[in-house]
Amino acid sequence: MRKAARTIYLLRQAQLRVYAAMVERLGALGLTPVQYMVLSLSSREGGLSSAELARRTQITPQSMNEVIAALRRKGLISRHEAPENRRILRVVLSKEGNRLLPECERQIDQLEAELFGCFNKNELASFRDLLSTFLEARRIDSQAAANEAAV
Questions:
Q1: Residue among 25, 39, 41, 108 at smallest CA distance from 75
Q2: How much is the pTM?
Q3: Are 43 and 98 in contact (CB under 8 A)?
Q4: Which residues of 41-63 are buried (b: 16+ CB within 10 A; e: fewer)?
Q5: Cα–Cα distance measured from residue 130 to residue 136, given in angstroms and rounded to the nearest whole number
């Protein structure tokens, strides 16, 4: 009997396929997946700092600065001083960013439908719940480890 593939291997293969498909879809709109995530987060959460965006997208602050610079050059975002602290610059979508984001969302919605069409509605809900549970458990583990290291 053949041994089943490791969960870690399967998860990595799925991540690679999803990411490659996102690169293709978003590339047609002139964006990378991380640039799309910054636009999406900025539209939903309104005015995140570059440090907050770096944490949310799990990239380094230096890499986030490059992403923000590219989005600014494309005219998709602007940065404004935070009222509570003038040293914090909040990222907000420009008129062009607000125009482009709905098309990005349509492309990602279509991509999700294609990639996860092998699941029925209940299976997809369960899959998302399992992934969310896994990620939340890892977030708690990471926070506990950080707290222990700080002691």
A1: 39
A2: 0.83
A3: yes
A4: bbbeeebbbbebbbeebebeeee
A5: 10
8-48 pLDDT, tens digit per residue, is 999 999 999 999 999 999 999 999 999 999 999 999 877 88
Handedness of CA 19, 96, 76, 56 (dihedral sign): negative
Long-range CB pairs of 87-96 (<8 Å, 24+ gap) are 88/49, 89/49, 89/50, 90/47, 90/48, 90/49, 91/38, 91/42, 91/47, 91/48, 91/49, 91/50, 91/53, 92/42, 92/46, 92/47, 93/39, 93/42, 93/43
> Phi/psi of residue 35, each to 5°?
-60, -40
Segments making up each domain of the chain, as ranges: 7-115, 120-151
Q: Which of these CATH numbers, 3.60.21.10, 3.90.70.10, 3.40.50.1370, 1.10.10.10, describes 7-115?
A: 1.10.10.10
| Calpha distance 88→90 (Å, rounded) | 6
Chain-centroid distance of CA 4 in Å reads: 30
DSSP state for residue 60 in the 8-state scheme: -
